[in-house]
Amino acid sequence: MATDSAHDKSKLLGKSFIFEALDPQARDDLARFSFLKKFSAGDVIFTMGTPGQSMMAIAEGVVRVSMFTPSGGEVTLTDLKAGDVFGEIALLDGQDRSASARALTNCTMVVLERRNLLEVLQRDSNLSIRLIELLCQRVRRSDERMIEGSFLDLPVRLAKLILRLSAALPASEDRPLKKLSQSQSELAGMVGNTRENVNRCLRKWQKAGLVNMQDGWLFILDRSALAKIADPDSF
Prior knowledge:
4-stranded antiparallel sheet, 9 helices
């Protein structure tokens, strides 16, 4: 369980891809200016279009990042877990939030204010490089989503998504089958389609023995078959 001491906040920051690049002294300095904030499952962390003067490192829990469409719909961009950071775009350019964030589970965040982080960036090139790498990863993923949504059929997009989500799950010897907790509506939002179409695709895969749907969970039974659907040219 996370506590609010500078030492513990420094350790939490050290688990992040971004802040592990800092030397211990710089990380301790940044931790002293940060604070912990807790959110309950379902809480809105921030909303697209609102002012943003901070970024957050997830110490505990899962956060969903999404965007609103012009028609009023919501598209899920990604689910983030402990060690991930978010909110960096508004923090760096000082403008409004480019997406919304909501706690999927009870969460604890290490919150970093813009003025403090910019001060560290000015004197620590390693952190600047890591932030650039993070932004590049986000741009690449955005480009991939654009291409997938424009040119790939639903089964290909859905198979890619399921494989990507399952790859992020921790390995467990007592649970050989990986399972996803996302609902069909959530999966539909992440691939930019309807729940009905996602349901039809999953039921077809269930009959073929690729997946199983039970008690709100999606069990992956044949990962290699899903990989072939996701990238048939590689087989």
